[in-house]
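Reading a protein record of the kind used here takes little practice once its layout is understood. The fold follows as a row of integers, each naming the local backbone shape at the matching residue. With these conventions in mind, the following record can be read line by line:

_____
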Amino acid sequence: MTMQQENAVSTPAGTAEAALEVWIDQDLCTGDGICAQYAPEVFELDIDGLAYVKGADDELLQDQGATTLVPLPLLSEVVDSAKECPGECIHVRRVSDKVEVYGPDAE
């Protein structure tokens, strides 16, 4: 793997300017688990039946509005999760300006 390939894999969404983060509104989560099927590295259902994002250490982030960076290799899976979510509770936004690019509040 070249240094450029390695950087592309390790840098979420390519560059800091293009970095994306994702969060789940548990108040709207229906617990269908579609997100965890699409991107189990990013989403997981907890014992309460609701989906949560996972941190870099694979730990569930259970604070309200907790975000995690979207790894570039998983971008399409995370976007598909937001598009297919029956609860419309997955929000993907740019880190730089917090503008939602995928999800129910996307422009």
Observations:
- The radius of gyration is 13 Å.
- The helical segments are 3-10, 34-38, 75-84.
- The beta strands are 20-24, 43-45, 51-54, 60-61, 68-69, 90-94, 100-102.
- Residues 1-14 have pLDDT under 50 and may be disordered.
